[in-house]
Amino acid sequence: xxxxxxxxxxIFLISKGLSQNQNKIQINLxxxxxxxxxxxxxxxxIYSPNKVKSNIIFKNTYINDNFTNLNFHLNWMLNKNGxxxxxxxxxxxxxxxxxxxxxxxxxxxxxxxxxxxxxxVFSNNAEKIPGIAINSNWINIYRLFEIKAELFQGKFPKxxxxxxxxxLHYKSLLLKRSFNDLSLGFSIQHAxxxxxxxxxxxxxxxxxxxxxNVFFARSGDESQPGQDQAYxxxxxxxxFTLFMQKNNLKLYFEHYFDDKSGVKTLNFGDGxxxxxxxxxxxILNVELIDTTDQSGNRHxxxxxxxxxxxVYKFGWSNNGLTIGNSFIxxxxxxKIIYNSNIKLNIKNTSLILQYADSKIFVPYLSKNNNLxxxxxxxxxxxxxxxxxxFEKKISLNRMLMVSYAKEKNRSNFVLSYLIEL
Length: 421
Description:
Number of domains: 1
Distance between the termini: 27 Å
Radius of gyration: 22 Å
Strand content: over 45%
């Protein structure tokens, strides 16, 4: 934390010499401490699942493309516990590539829908994992399509019950093609948690040889946990994404995979299917999230155990919040969710309605001694989520927002005031 505060001060001082500053301040006042999905998820890890606190969020971007091509981005928060750095990074850009250091979002095939429940691999739900990334700019291949690639290496912070966090390896390949008013895209994402400490808090060697195994999704060597030797090195996951946009209509499908299910696609159909209509007066977003198949209820070849891992018990999460889709978690990973959102813009006023309905099934965690999971098609629980919002643009750079959310026996509301400087 001391290092982050020093970095915060350093970035602030450096920013004074840069040519453009973009600053936002948002004050959030909550009615109570209840955690509700639509008010508190997909907020970059600002809110703990156990406690909600009123706060002030600051977003600062410092740009000087004309001289150094070096940008700084800082997102920080003040609440009754003090100052917390939520996201920070610096980016160097040239005609060929970008180099980013810090915590930041990964490269995207398309702009994420405003009210999406979040990507299956990296959403805005949890705090970003700090590291370094190199990505190419879009490259035109013989006017047939454009291609972009990204390579990232980072390290998780310390997680509950573990002496230290694992490393994170991530790479992606993105392709797109435009035909007048039609755009098509495809991407492959592959992320792996590796190294760090195992479930017994024994340090896992992080050798160059094992990194090669992680990179190529091969089995781990004899220095790795037994599970990684028999299966794949580290906790690997990813997604194949298809994207299409025509005028104001956007269609996307993320097929999630976990280790070998990505190669054999036995779980085909699991993932996120969404459609968005975006215009000046209306934003409409509808999504279906289905994670029930997981290649079957018996291992092998099924029980893919999305977001869950025997070595890293916290799974695909950071400080208790899922890194991927906000509705799915390591210990509740088999669900069917219908997520619908609408925003109506009337002059300087907006009305927002969000509603989601979920069915929760028996989660697939460990391999159950290679025995089939019983009652895997039974619905354990049904939930619904509701959010009503109102936004009023007071001036060119001032906005007032009021939101109310309800789910199960919990409800909360928040009054927000946004200032752009």
